[in-house]
């Protein structure tokens, strides 16, 4: 056995290198069943190649450029596959034999167990490798968009390397911070998919763990939606599982080499709608108060504060000469492209090389991929290098060894900021870019010749904003490697043992460098840190099968696993007071402020460590009655280290069954030629979820007190009686194959209830803690999923396939605690207590948008104003909308004509609201196109006289009802008491009219103006591929050559986001994407690629 293992390690070098080529020709023929009836729709492919044909209605087929050494594979549902070597023949007559075993394809299920699709009693969808070919997505999950019903994939438009959030059939966790994402399993190894320290509101998006998986290595993906996944994968699979299978080595007559090149270019498709009539102006500088005249006798651009630098309530941009900040006189004219000018063209270049081979002893595949990206924003990049190795080797006739290894190096500089942060372009363009702003002028004038911030840069804090954008460098470098070693023993023809050990390790280095703005160099900024995240998953699975009777078969599995994860981090940050302004090092920091020993500088590093372990035993019993009735019973027991000793053991049972009624009653369905296949299925399963580490024991935080190191007890009391969170799920479904399996229909209804939620609640300060962790609350999800896969046209030369998916999920927070005392729970928000929030409330869908609204007259529905014409607002936050969509849908059309393939992908989200802060801010700042209304008589403005006696034409009247006295809230009726005196006739300035709609920072600032439905139908992708005929390649020793061009995020066919804002650009990459602030503009990507195999 030792010699066999050594042979496995060197077996790659022992594969012979021999590649043969033969003359190509056209082959054709007819395919029929055993009765001689032609079979339309039979798949005829060249083995090992992504080309072939389908038989027409008369069973005929034809394929060009086939070599004599090629093997043709004939496959059709309900018939056994047949392989034929071409040889010297050019014409074939093929007879396919019926086969019950071939009626359903074999799919990969939980724990890596292969099963016939017809035996599965729950919903599972497959995305095959040919559907992913040539796509080169930013991450592998993007390939699921529009293809899989019931899966909501959210990218917050953070550009290359950004995070992706996946929710299957609605979220199950009420408490914020508890992930609803599915488990990702790569070649049998669970891997981490945590967001890499993404702040939920105002910081950079560093991406998700899935970004380390190389899209070029993917063979297929299986999406396990139901709780059966949790029943077999434990608490980590409670939200579903995505099984990823990577490419394996194939026999190419020697070692095959493939080179794949891909180039992508991202550009702004459109920016938000703005006005280009009025320029900068705020607090007095407006149409009625022109710019001041300076000592040179010129009209001069006024100095404005940080808050006023983006305001555009000034004079008309009519070309009047104005002296700018650099002393040059320029025309005061519109700048229609200044929201686009800071951006360049984002460029991504991907080079991938792979080699593979196989013989009777085993197979191998190795690949190397280099991905280099420059995002659209200046001063950033995203680079990723991947290497992988995958091998299988037959140590003996009964023992097989397998090895998978994946490595990723990610270098990420200044990824996109998602929200309210001065280091992001989104906020700068919103708060600091007036409509008259000359972009390049700003960029050219913020530095002194010495390289520090120009003190005469007359923008107040805005100078620092530009400094942050162009000088600050936040970097993270990640080294990650994951893989597994597997041994399979086939003891007998009915008993097999699999043993596997897998690892997933990531080392991350963080650095932030920002040069000093001031000449003294004391404000240099520098921080550094490192983290190590290591996990190990070891498991075994014993599989046996036995035919109990002629009609009843049994397959049994028994296994166990141990999951262990530990994480360590050490971080330090210094923002000011340095000895050397040019040295980025922690030991360069001053211990005391300029030597003053009474002013010690606190520089306590932050260090964290935690570990977690789960031990598991599990088993399955699969019964097969006459190959048309199937029943599976599963059970799993976990022992988690994160729960109290007396509650750390929990059990997951599940049952699922499927019934292929067209097989059971063949005679009854014999006359229904349109129905080829029918199956009903059902399942019930229970899942459980544990908690994060150290919630049940007291831990201490390290900090400082009065400049000295100190430790602090946690704010949350340890949960000594915590129990696992439970989820019960049942589902039922129907699968149909019709019209010679040219139309396949799948329907699923599901219902899942998550109870015993792990929650946090407030405590009285007298306890010494501010909150406690306990089990309470429940949330329900129910819905339907529909998938239709149809081939309307299939001939020798032309094929048209349509894939349609639809899903509707109804979510309800049943209660937040068993007593009903908790009426609302804040999930996320903007500006803390001074802005809108997203909350969970009993009886409502998860994700209520809460904010301040106007107070309305019951009789007319109009808002109330005071006697001066200004709107009243509510005293507290009220519900303004909900983020939950009504339904999701996808539509994929694939057209194949000879060697050309054209794909058109669409996806849609209908319903669900979003707080678009950019809408309110742009209105309040006078930037939006809508804010032109009322500016002058040509825009509907009314004539009036201001307090200084100036005649003006920018008056507006609120369409409202006057309430002379302020409305008073009545808690008994949950409404406001007020009196009215008639319709409003008071004129207010247009700037005041729009200011009250600005949805700005501050408790009580009206939010309702910015809450809008966020529905869209998007043309997600167009692509065209071409496979070069082999007859053109033979003399160059090339086996396959293909080219493709594509466009992504092509455009929106329907969109409800206001002011042409980006519906995908939200500050929250988690399970709630309901708040937008300073979002990125809508972008579009075009690209091309080429792939050659030798």
TrEMBL record:
Subcellular localization, as worded in the UniProt entry: Cell outer membrane
Membrane topology reported for the UniProt record: Multi-pass membrane protein
Primary location class: membrane
Signal peptide: 1-22
GO biological process: siderophore transmembrane transport
Domain of life: Bacteria
A Gene Ontology molecular function term of the record: siderophore uptake transmembrane transporter activity
One CC-aspect GO term: cell outer membrane
Sequence ranges assigned to domain TonB-dependent receptor-like beta-barrel in this UniProt record: 452-816
The entry's keywords: Cell outer membrane, Membrane, Signal, TonB box, Transmembrane, Transmembrane beta strand, Transport
The protein, known as: SusC/RagA family TonB-linked outer membrane protein
Xref: Pfam families: CarbopepD_reg_2, Plug, TonB_dep_Rec_b-barrel
Domain TonB-dependent receptor plug: 119-241
Organism of this sequence: Sediminicola luteus
Family of the protein in this entry: Belongs to the TonB-dependent receptor family.
């Amino acid at each position: 056995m030792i010699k066999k293992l050594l042979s496995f390690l060197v077996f790659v070098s022992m594969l012979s290198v021999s590649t043969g080529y033969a003359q190509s020709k056209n082959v054709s023929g007819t395919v029929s069943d055993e009765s001689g009836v032609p079979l339309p729709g039979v798949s005829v492919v060249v083995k090992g190649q992504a080309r072939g044909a389908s038989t027409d209605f008369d069973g005929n087929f034809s394929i060009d450029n086939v070599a004599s050494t090629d093997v043709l594979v004939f496959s059709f549902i309900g018939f056994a596959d047949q392989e034929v070597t071409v040889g010297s023949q050019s014409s074939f007559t093929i007879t396919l034999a019926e086969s019950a075993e071939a009626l359903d394809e074999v799919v990969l299920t939980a724990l890596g167990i292969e099963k016939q699709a017809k035996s599965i009693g729950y919903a599972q969808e497959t995305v095959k490798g040919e559907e992913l070919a040539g796509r080169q997505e930013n991450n592998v999950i993007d390939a699921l968009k529009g293809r899989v019903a019931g899966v909501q994939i959210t990218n917050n438009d953070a550009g290359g390397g950004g995070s992706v959030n996946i929710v299957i059939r609605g979220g199950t966790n009420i408490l914020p911070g508890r992930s609803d994402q599915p488990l990702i399993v790569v070649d049998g190894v669970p891997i981490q998919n945590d967001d890499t320290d993404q702040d939920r509101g105002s910081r950079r998006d560093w991406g998700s763990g899935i970004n380390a998986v190389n899209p070029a290595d993917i063979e297929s993906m299986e999406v396990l939606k139901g709780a059966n996944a949790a029943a077999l994968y434990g608490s980590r699979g409670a939200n579903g599982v995505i099984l990823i299978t990577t490419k394996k080595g194939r026999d190419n007559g020697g070692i095959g080499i493939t080179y794949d090149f891909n180039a992508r270019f991202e550009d702004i498709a459109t920016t938000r709608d703005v006005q280009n009539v009025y320029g900068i102006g705020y607090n007095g500088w407006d149409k009625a108060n022109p710019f001041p005249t300076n000592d040179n006798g010129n009209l001069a651009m006024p100095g404005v504060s940080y808050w006023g630098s983006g305001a555009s309530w000034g004079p008309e941009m009519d070309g009047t000469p104005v002296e700018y900040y650099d002393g040059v006189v320029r025309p005061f004219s519109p700048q229609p492209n200044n929201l686009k000018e800071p951006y360049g063209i984002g460029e991504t270049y991907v080079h991938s090389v792979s080699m593979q081979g196989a013989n009777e002893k085993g197979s191998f595949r190795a690949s190397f991929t280099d991905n280099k990206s420059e995002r659209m924003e200046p001063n950033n990049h995203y680079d990723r290098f991947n290497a992988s190795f995958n091998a299988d080797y037959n140590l003996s006739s009964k023992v097989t060894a397998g090895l998978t290894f994946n490595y990723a190096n990610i270098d990420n500089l200044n990824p996109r900021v998602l929200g309210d942060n001065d280091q992001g372009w989104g906020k700068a363009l919103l708060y600091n870019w007036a409509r008259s702003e000359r972009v390049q002028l700003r960029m050219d004038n913020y530095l002194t010749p010495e390289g520090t911030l120009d003190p005469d840069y007359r923008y107040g804090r805005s100078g620092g904003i530009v400094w942050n954008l162009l000088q600050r460098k936040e970097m993270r470098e990640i080294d990650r490697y994951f893989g597994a070693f597997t041994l399979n023993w086939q003891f007998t023809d009915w008993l097999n043992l699999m043993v596997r050990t897998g690892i997933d390790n990531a080392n991350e280095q963080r650095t932030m460098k920002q040069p000093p703005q001031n000449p003294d160099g004391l404000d240099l900024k520098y921080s550094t840190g490192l983290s190590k995240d290591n996990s190990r998953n070891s498991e075994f699975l014993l599989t046996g099968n036995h035919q109990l009777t002629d009609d009843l078969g049994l397959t049994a599995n028994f296994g166990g696993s141990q999951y262990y994860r530990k994480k360590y981090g050490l971080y330090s940050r210094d923002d000011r007071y340095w000895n050397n302004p040019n040295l980025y090092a922690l030991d360069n920091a001053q211990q005391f402020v300029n030597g003053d020993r009474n002013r010690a500088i606190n520089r306590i590093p932050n260090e964290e460590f935690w570990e977690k372990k789960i031990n598991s035993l599990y088993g399955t019993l699969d019964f097969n009655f006459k190959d048309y009735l199937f029943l599976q019973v599963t059970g799993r027991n976990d022992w988690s280290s994160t729960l109290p000793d007396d509650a750390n053991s929990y059990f997951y049972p599940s049952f699922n069954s499927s019934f292929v009624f067209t097989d059971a009653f063949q005679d009854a369905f014999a006359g229904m030629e349109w129905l080829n296949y029918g199956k009903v299925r059902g399942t019930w399963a229970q899942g459980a979820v544990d908690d994060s580490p150290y919630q049940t024991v007291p831990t201490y935080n390290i900090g400082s007190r009065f400049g000295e190191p100190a430790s602090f007890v946690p704010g949350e009391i340890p949960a000594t009686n915590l129990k696992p969170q439970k989820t019960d799920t049942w589902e039922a479904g129907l699968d149909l194959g019709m019209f010679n399996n040219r139309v396949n229909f799948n329907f699923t209804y599901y219902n899942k209830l998550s109870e015993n939620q792990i929650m946090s609640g407030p405590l009285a300060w007298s306890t010494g803690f501010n909150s406690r962790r306990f089990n309470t609350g429940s949330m329900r999800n129910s819905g339907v999923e529909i998938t239709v896969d149809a081939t309307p046209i299939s001939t020798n030369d032309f094929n048209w396939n349509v894939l349609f998916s639809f899903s509707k999920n109804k979510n309800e927070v049943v209660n937040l605690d068993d007593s009903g005392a908790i009426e609302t729970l804040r999930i996320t928000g903007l500006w803390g207590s001074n802005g809108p929030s997203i909350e969970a409330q009993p009886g409502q869908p998860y994700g209520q948008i809460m904010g301040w609204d106007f107070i309305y007259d019951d009789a007319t529905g109009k808002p109330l104003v005071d006697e001066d014409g200004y709107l009243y607002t509510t005293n507290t936050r009220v519900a303004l909308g909900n983020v939950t969509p009504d339904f999701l849908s996808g539509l994929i059309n694939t057209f194949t004509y000879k060697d050309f393939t054209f794909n058109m992908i669409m996806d849609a989200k209908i319903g669900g609201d979003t707080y678009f802060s950019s809408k309110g801010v742009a209105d309040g700042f006078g930037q939006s196109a809508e804010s032109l209304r009322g500016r002058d008589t040509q825009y509907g403005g009314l004539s009036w006289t201001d307090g200084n006696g100036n005649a003006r034409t920018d008056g507006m009247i609120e369409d409202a009802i006057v309430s002379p006295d302020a409305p008073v809230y009545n808690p008994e009726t949950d409404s406001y008491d007020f009196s009215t005196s008639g319709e409003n006739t008071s004129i207010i300035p247009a700037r005041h009219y729009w200011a009250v709609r600005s949805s700005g920072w501050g408790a009580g600032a009206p939010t309702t103006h910015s809450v809008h439905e966020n529905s869209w139908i998007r043309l997600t992708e167009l692509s065209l591929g071409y496979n070069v005929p082999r007859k053109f390649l033979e003399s160059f020793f090339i086996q396959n050559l293909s080219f493709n061009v594509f466009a992504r995020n092509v455009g929106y066919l329907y969109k409800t986001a206001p002011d042409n804002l980006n519906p995908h650009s939200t500050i929250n990459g988690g399970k709630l994407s309901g708040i937008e602030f300073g979002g990125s503009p809508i972008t579009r990507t075009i690209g091309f690629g080429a792939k050659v195999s030798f």
